[in-house]
Amino acid sequence: MPQEIVWLDISKNDILNPKKEVLARYKHLQWLNIEHNCLWLTEKEWPSRFFENLTKLDTLLMKDNCSKISYFTIKEMKYSKECFYGLSSLRHIELNGLGGHNFEEAFEASNSIEVLVFTVDGGYCFLNSIENDTFKIFQHLKNLTLFNCNIIRMENGAFAHFNDLIFLDVSENPDLTLSVLINITYDLQYSKIQTFIANNLHCQQGLSWILRIDHIKYLQNTSLKELSLAGNRIGIIEHRLTKYLPKSLKYINISNNPLMFGDYVVEGDFLSNLERLNIDHTERDGMRRTGCNYNSNSCDKVGDLSVDETSNEVSKTYNFYQLPPKLKSLSMANKKIYLPYIGNFCGFRPTNSLTHLHVQGNLIYNIQEFSGFQHLEYLDLSNNFCFNITKQAFQDMTGLLFLNLSKNLLGKELQRRNREHVFDPLHNLKVLDLSYNWITVLQKDLFASLSNIEHLDLSNNELESVTFDLSTALRLRVLNLSSNKIVMLDSKAMNFLDASREKQLSILMSNNPLQCTCQSMKFLKWMRASSHKIFQDREKYTCVFTDEKRIKMRNLGHIIFSLERQCMSFTTTIVIVAIILLIIIIFVSFAIMYRYRWKLRYLYYAGRRIYRGYSRILESGCDNHLCIRLA
């Protein structure tokens, strides 16, 4: 390699015991990644001054994930004296957290490190105890990550000397418990902290906790913008706690906590600059401990509270909830929120600025009327077992652009005639998702008012045809009809889709039992001929012939040609057979009439006499004489 290179990545190469003189050749390096090797497998102490010739190096990534090194060996390993000497330009370093964590010996006092990352991702981390002088050598630190480092104790004062610290992540250290926040926030009160992440500091099993004012009160006068306390089994938030949060906060993440309904839902006015709030619940598929050590002496253990996680029904005490005035995004997904009705008792005060609302994965059965959503642009109501929706449901959402109603039970509801105007207020809607709703048929004018719709998803339903009119949806770009029961479209449906649009319409119809028969010939020709639409992934469509033979529709022209010949022969046969049958019927009819011609004539005159009756003699001009009339 040329010695002038400035960027070098030799990670994942199983490098064992590298030589100092080899790396010393590349004095111009500014970025170096030597992660995922077995650098010093046989050494309990890393070599001294290994990087001293790399005076221009700015970033060093050396987390070492070596499966050959045992758990106990890593805990005993330490950095050598003067290990990182000579790296005068180094600002960003990512390391294993060795058990010795003797940083004052390994780094120069004049180091310029601003970003320091210890994480189990890509290596090992066993810092165990963080004392008030553990990181004292890093005077210029601005970004510190201690992710999943098996920390069981954190002293008061551990971060007090980081006046320039703007980012701190102590997540995935469940032995600390939530009470460690008192020590951490006390140290951060005079810092320039902007992002503080303390996720999963508590065991996932066991009692829930109260998030108390004492845990966060020292942050009140900081410039904190992002706060994350996800996965800490927080059951209750102490009354008026939001008053002690810094006014500078723009994002709060308290997801994956078994929060109960409480007064905090009406205390949003204290967070005057908050823009995003995440309180949803997602299943963790990563690291999860079944047991935690709570024997640390550095943290107060008060604040336990037993909470029934299933008791999450929203109270009807509050009719309207106060949101922070600048809040734009609110996520409450998968919280098991039970709302038998969203109606007049549920909504937000109209002074809010909410534009994005995520409430998927709850138990919202009936949607009667939303209120306080004048600025809403994005709404996700999917996977809520919803089976009822009224025509007033969206009347307060005239600015809505995205609506997801998928994975509900709206099939029967949307086919009712009095529900055909349910989407009428949504003149600006661009995306509508109605997939997975057991829909069999839709009213003709259901989408008549959606003049700006661009993407309509009706996939994974029970539709057999297009009964709804889309001729007014001139901006429609994508129509997803895949995974339904459509065998072909009739002339009326084809006319609905044939309207000239601003852009070519892309139709998805995969996983439908499409038929290639004489009856579907017109539909197949329409699929091939129209210039206003394109059938996306048509080569993956499967077509079924009358003999149950299935074929991919890669060459639609050949299929149509074969059907034309087949149908033409079939038509000729039908005509010939019909003519022969007609001749036979006529011949048999004449033969029968000739054979019984006298009986037929007798029956004719007999019926005629019965109809006209007998003539009276006096009317014939014979008076008292016998008259004989010869016929």
Give the arrangement of secondary structure elements.
Layout: E1 7-9, H1 20-23, E2 31-33, E3 59-61, H2 71-76, E4 92-95, H3 103-106, E5 115-119, E6 129-130, E7 143-147, E8 153-154, E9 167-169, H4 181-188, E10 195-197, E11 208-211, H5 213-216, E12 226-228, E13 234-237, E14 251-253, E15 276-278, E16 304-305, E17 329-331, E18 338-339, E19 356-358, E20 363-364, E21 366-367, E22 378-380, E23 388-389, E24 402-404, H6 411-414, E25 431-433, E26 455-457, E27 478-480, H7 491-497, E28 505-508, E29 514-515, H8 521-529, E30 533-535, E31 542-544, E32 550-552, H9 556-595, H10 597-612
Parallel strand pairs: 1-2, 2-3, 3-4, 4-5, 5-7, 6-8, 7-9, 9-10, 10-12, 11-13, 12-14, 14-15, 15-17, 17-19, 18-20, 19-22, 21-23, 22-24, 24-25, 25-26, 26-27, 27-28, 28-30, 29-31
Antiparallel strand pairs: 11-16, 31-32
Describe this structure in words.
- There is one protein chain.
- By secondary structure, this protein is α/β, with parallel strands linked by helices.
- The chain is built from 10 helices and 32 strands.
- The chain has a 20-stranded parallel β-sheet, with no helix packed on it.
- Strand 27, helix 7 (491-497) and strand 28 (505-508) form a beta-alpha-beta unit.
- The radius of gyration is 40 Å and the shape is elongated.
Q: Which range does the strand content fall in?
A: 15-25%
Structural class determined from secondary elements: alpha/beta
Distance between the termini: 132 Å
Our Rg estimate from Cα atoms comes to 40 Å
Poorly predicted sequence stretches spanning 5 or more consecutive residues: 295-318
The total of beta strands comes to 32
Largest sheet: 20 strands, parallel
Q: Estimate the helix proportion, in percent.
A: 10-25%
Can you count the helices? 10
The pLDDT mean sits at 83
Tell me the overall shape.
elongated
